[in-house]
UniProtKB/TrEMBL annotation:
Keywords: FAD, Flavoprotein, Oxidoreductase. It comes from Tamlana crocina. Pfam families: Acyl-CoA_dh_1, Acyl-CoA_dh_M, Acyl-CoA_dh_N. Signal peptide: none annotated. This is Acyl-CoA dehydrogenase. It comes from the Bacteria. Belongs to the acyl-CoA dehydrogenase family.
């Protein structure tokens, strides 16, 4: 067992750290305040290979492993979780699904552009009446011979207003339940496809979240991903990898808050000494660091499982469940260590605290992760 990063992994981590510090940090407060999608930065992340980290270079990707992806996600998330969720959705939910299950034609047409950042992708599973209960899809895709007609509403879609390519999950045969669900590629601008207003959110405010409406959207049969009826399993497999990305995001948010809290506690004085010398503060730092390291082990184990070709449904759920709790708990503590300064924007920790909450909700709530983990334990 080797807990050390390879030289290559260290280089990737350092490149992501430099990008986060030099490019993401300068405008992060303003983007959060104005809910500004970081379009130019997305382009730069594409140039660095961050948008198709694990994609085969023959489709324009970086050909790296999941550990590299985790390192990139962690470093970006220490500074800007709005930027990192764009990276996460594009990599895990869009590129992965297309590469693993798409046809050669679909890969040539879409994956090559998504992996380089020329296109941005979105993944559309959630609906007003089907969030956690994802098998209860109300959006329908009716087989019309040579095409499907899609009707329905998707909500909470990340990159919703900015994407070029949307992976849409829909019910093609209600009688077959989860076996009557399919995944489709829908291009922006397709007739009948409407993008609703942007959500005004608590956190990850630079990320673009929209409701999408599909009114008789005509999709050629060649836009279906995988065999007929495989869409729900496609979504679940895709989400297992996605959960590693969000777990790494949570790890980064917690780590970013910890680093700021440590630095502040060594500078700020109260009662004649730096506040880190008060045991109540020192013990918070000890708890933060220990929990972050524990979360890192779970996140890396899930990434390693995926890289080894082993099952990662359970390990990714465990990583997300734990890392998101650590992010929530310790961003609150980071605000506490900053005292009044923690409550204002320029110290960054209040934003990290607001951003942390979403990691317990999207890509399956913490309750859903417990369902995935416990079912797996009982099956084993
Ligand atoms: N791999 C392959 N197949 C799977 C699977 C997996 N990981 N998980 C389930 N399946 C299969 C099951 O084996 C079952 O097949 P059979 O009928 O042949 O046995 C079928 O799928 C249905 O599974 P369940 O009976 O387990 O379905 P369920 O209704 O009990 O729901 C659930 C399972 C785990 C709760 C699932 O609905 C779920 O994950 N919900 C959460 C949805 C979610 O995570 N949404 C995220 C949206 S994307 C997002 O959020 C992005 C973002 O923010 C950035
Ligand atoms: P509900 O399913 O209504 O759950 C409400 C509460 O009940 C939760 O606490 C939940 O854990 C609990 N609950 C539900 N069922 C059970 C159960 N069986 N046992 C125990 N507790 C249960 N979706 C996409 O498809 N694509 C995206 O890009 C995307 N991006 C998002 C971005 C943001 C900012 C947000 C807020 C959401 C995003 N989502 C996206 C949707 C997200 O995945 C869902 O919000 C999430 O899966 C929960 O669904 P829900 O909101 O309908 O909550």
């Amino acid at each position: 067992m080797n807990f050390n990063l390879s030289e290559e992994h260290k280089l990737i981590r350092d490149a992501a750290r430099d990008f986060a510090q030099n490019e993401l940090l300068p405008g992060v407060i303003e983007r959060d305040e104005k809910q500004h999608f970081p379009k130019e930065l997305v382009k730069k992340m594409g140039d660095l290979g961050f948008l198709g980290v694990m994609v085969d270079p023959k489709y324009g990707g970086s050909g790296m492993d999941t550990i590299s992806y985790v390192l990139i996600m962690e470093e970006l998330s220490k500074v800007d979780a709005s930027a990192s969720v764009i990276v996460s959705v594009n990599n895990s939910l869009v590129c992965y699904g297309l590469e693993a299950y798409g046809t050669e034609e679909q890969k040539e047409k879409y994956l090559t552009k998504l992996a380089t950042g020329e296109f941005v992708g979105a993944f559309c599973l959630s609906e007003p009446e089907a969030g956690s209960d994802a098998t209860s899809q109300r959006t329908t895709a009716i087989d019309q011979g040579d095409h499907y007609l899609i009707n329905g509403t998707k909500n909470w879609i990340t990159n919703g207003g900015r994407a070029d390519v949307y992976i849409v999950i829909a019910q093609t045969d209600r009688d077959k339940g989860s076996h009557g669900i399919n995944a489709f590629i829908v291009e922006k601008g397709t007739e009948g496809f409407h993008i609703g207003p942007k959500e005004d959110k608590l956190g990850i405010r630079g990320s673009d979240t929209h409701t999408l409406q599909f009114n008789d959207v005509k999709i050629p049969k060649t836009q279906r991903i995988g065999p007929n009826g495989s869409g729900f399993r496609f979504a679940m497999k895709t989400l297992s990898g996605g959960r590693i990305g969000i777990a790494a995001q949570a790890l980064g948010i917690a780590g970013g808050a910890y680093e700021l809290a440590l630095k502040y506690s060594k500078q700020r004085k109260a009662f004649g000494t730096e506040i880190c010398n008060h045991q109540a503060i020192a013990f918070k730092l000890a708890d933060m660091y220990t929990d972050i390291e524990a979360a890192r082990m779970l996140v890396m184990k899930a990434a390693w499982d995926k890289d080894q070709g082993q099952s990662y449904d359970k390990s990714s759920a465990m990583a997300k469940l734990y890392a998101s709790q650590v992010a929530m708990d310790h961003t609150v503590e980071a605000v506490q260590i900053h005292g009044g300064n923690g409550f204002v924007k320029e110290y960054h920790v209040e934003r990290l605290m607001r951003d942390a909450k979403i990691t317990q909700i999207y890509e399956g709530t913490s309750e859903i992760q417990k369902i995935v983990i416990s079912r797996s334990l009982i099956r084993e």
